[in-house]
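CORE FACILITY INTAKE
Project code: CF-77B
Contact: R.S. (postdoc)
Sample description: multi-component assembly, two entities in total
Requested service: structural model of the whole complex
Turnaround: standard
Below are the sequence entries exactly as provided by the requester. Do not edit them.
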Amino acid sequence: MRIGLFITCLTDSLFPDTGKAVVTVLERLGHQVDFPAGQSCCGQMHFNTGYRREAVPMARGFAGAFADYEAIVSPSASCAAMVREYHQVLAAGDPGLEREVAAIAPRVHDLSVFLTGVLKITDVGAYFPHRVTYHPTCHSLRMLRVGDAPLRLLRAVRGLDLAALPGAETCCGFGGTFSVKNSDVSAAMCADKVAAIRQTGAEVVCAADNSCLMHIGGALTRQRTGVAAMHLAEILARTEDGS
Amino acid sequence: MTAAGARRGRPAAGGQGPHGSMPTYLGMPAFPEAARAALADSQLRRNLAHATHTIREKRARAVAELDDWERLRQAAKAIKDHTLAHLGTYLLRLEENVTRAGGHVHWARDAAEANAVVARLARGAGADTVVKVKSMATQETGLNEALAAAGVTAIETDLAELIVQLGHDLPSHILVPAIHRNRAEIREIFRREMPDAPAGLTDDPPRLTAAARTHLRQAFLSAKAGISGANFAIADTGSLVVVESEGNGRMCVTLPETLISVVGVEKVLPSWRDLEVFLALLPRSSTAERMNPYTSVWTGVTPGDGPREFHLVLVDNGRTDTLADPVGRQALRCIRCSACLNVCPVYERAGGHAYGSPYPGPIGAILSPQLRGIADPVDASLPFASSLCGACYEVCPVAINIPEVLVHLRARVADGKRKKIISSERAVFQASGWVLRSPWRLRAAQRAGAAGRRLAGRSGRIRRLPPPLSGWTDTRDAPAPPPESFRAWWARTRGGASRGRGNGQDGGS
């Protein structure tokens, strides 16, 4: 299977370790991963803030970069949902692009669904001897509908002590530009999420999206909680020999 | 009175926008500022968090009892969409059948026309006082203020609406207008504003209710006119339906000699068969009940029983404009259950007043900017008053994709900014769009960012950024750019071998 890694601009620019972890996990499972260098940004921030015209070339660029891949895997449920749900809106009126999007969108997967749903694997051979709580991000839950795929992967990690997060399905308050345009409400939502995380006694909060983790993690370090925010892929990449 | 309540006066009638009109919530700031003030009110936050969490859990249990909930929801959506697509046909059928049953139908283009019709009818009925069933349509038109200006006193008879009225306050929730009040505050309002409040009134809910009951009894028996909205209007029979919990509605629609119902044009349903679907969905979604205590249905007038005169005022007030928008029109499916408010994490923290309209929460954020237009800064801020978490869409009994409409309306606001000569936001998004659509420019930006690691110091976290990003760093650290982006790492370690069209070329400009 030709797997193309859709890194997303945020993870590419700010969280390269997550991308390396996705590559590590997929290669450990015997798959070859390719990184199409023609990719840049899916356009979600522009689309969600109302700047559709600016997002159209990004949808076009995505279609060009990933046209040849059988599976397109992303460490961001939110960006994967953007491609699957909304690139067709951006393509409207351009029949060529509409066709390309229709062909590509169903092949775009978030890492957890790709592992559990496409590859049918829950045990990826990971070892992570820490207490971890999992925050299901809104777009993974309600747009991409990943269900309990990330939890099944975490339960199969050796040594991992999974703590249930109270009010897990409540939004953390990130919301893209919402976190800046409505920073007070966003911060209040984040404060409640951080309080719930601390209640679990977890050393690590894990999610399938670096955007929400950047928001939650930013509050965790500001408050000097000692709790780390880690992407699911980075936990799945850890093994007993310390790789 | 809470700080949030004290800041706001009564709504003033008027405020004619390019679309419909609603009472201007005088002096209201845009959503972010209003929400900031509400967040600082710890009493308000406690009241709201307690109330919304309670009803949220009850609703989930009530809905879980039905194994065909999703099918009901899709049926409701289909019925509403069909009706809205043939709205003219069904409204004329409704008019014909209401008239045949002895009622009178009036058409109002906007709030001012609706209010003028009601004021004229009330005065014609010789009423100096009218009793009102809780009604969103008359909140929307600012009827009470218009009636006061015409010398008619309107008395709200729904308990929560009465608390809001006596408190010189504004409603903050569709179903529970006084959700921002706790019982101690309600006791104070009654003691201060209710002349016949019993001495030694405590904040025991049954005692508060009994005081309101006594207070309202005389009004029910003496008012010459009653005013209602309607949850549904049945075209085939000309019947109006009001769904309520307290029985005050039943009193208002049966005791006075004249009944005036003010109803948005989107409330029409084709037939009785359609009503069944909505009577299953509405109570479970709004009060988390299998069935609400009182469902009143009337068809015109019946000699010797109930009002002698019945008037139906059908209100447009921006609905036709909303219907013209293929994406936005789904907001007209709304049955005002308020399930979306109760699950919304933004509403829970900002409270209803921050939305600057009688329609708060997620539905208000898509309804007000459509009914009123986006000329006002409050309305232009509403589509952004959401983290797009999608909890509202999940619970909506008529499957309104609220996040989809929010994003659609954001584009309308952003397009407005394109027309301005100077817009710093537009400049930022155009420039970032130019960078992000090209892998080359993105890589250059990543290199420049890596050079800016100094900002972060040894901690690797950035603690302060300039405005508008300071809103982030006030409470959250920002990550420092890594020394090497992922794509740079890939190129260095994997030799940049990759396929795909455009392969590193400009992604289109």
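Facility notes:
- The domain at 131-237 of chain A is CATH 3.40.50 (Rossmann fold).
- Chain A touches chain B through 75 residues (CB under 8 Å).
Invoice: internal transfer
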